[in-house]
Amino acid sequence: REVVPSLFLSSSFNLQDPTTFYSVFTHITSSGISKRNAKPLQEKLFHYLEIIESDMSRQIARKSSAFFDTMMYLNAQMEQLKLNHKAVLTLRNGISNLKDEVVLKPMNILSLPRKKGNILSAMKKLENMRTVREVQSTIQLQLAHQEYASALDLISTTQDLLSSELSAIKGLRHLSSELQEHEKLIEKMIAAEFNKYIADDLNRPLSDLKDLLDEVILVFIS
């Protein structure tokens, strides 16, 4: 049985290499092409091709059983992989549900008192903000009725709120200076009332023994 030359089986076989090229196509030389030798060479190359194809067929036939066994094994592995994937998904869903029921819900329940406290604190702060915004109109009303003590108490309480619980509210920061102006105004009004009392008291007849002002008001403005 004729054997295919090792040249054709070499891993470095490359017809672009001149040495390899002339070794295969022996009818081509530096002096030209020999047509007489071309046909026998063509037949020889076809013969080599037939030998290689025949060997390949025998190799495939001999190893086909192992090949199909391997394919069947791979198919079985793929089916098992699908089952494993499905099992993993089921397990992950179970863990997720367990996390929701056993971990997250109890944590949410434990956080409810804190949330309630935050809500109550926010409500209290909102109530204080509403009260503070109404302070100026209340002060004006108290001054109209000469309730200086109540107005000063309200200013003091409001200033305490603005410097503590409501100190972070930027929209209320201007109220502190406005309340200070109200406080100065009240001081001027009290001083004016006191001066008026002194003037009236000094200018009344000595025979008039009636109290000029109510004793409570007199104590306050003095």
TrEMBL record:
The keyword Transport applies. GO terms for cellular component: cytosol; GARP complex. The keyword Transport applies. It is found in: Golgi apparatus, trans-Golgi network. Pfam families: Vps54_N (PF10475). InterPro entries: Vps54 (IPR039745), VPS54_N (IPR019515). GO terms for molecular function: syntaxin binding. Residues 30-197 form the Vacuolar protein sorting-associated protein 54 N-terminal domain. GO terms for biological process: Golgi to vacuole transport; protein transport; retrograde transport, endosome to Golgi. Its main location: Golgi. Keywords: Coiled coil, Golgi apparatus, Protein transport, Transport. Belongs to the VPS54 family. PANTHER family: VACUOLAR PROTEIN SORTING 54, VACUOLAR PROTEIN SORTING-ASSOCIATED PROTEIN 54. This is Vacuolar protein sorting-associated protein 54 N-terminal domain-containing protein. The lineage of its organism: Eukaryota, Metazoa, Ecdysozoa, Arthropoda, Crustacea.
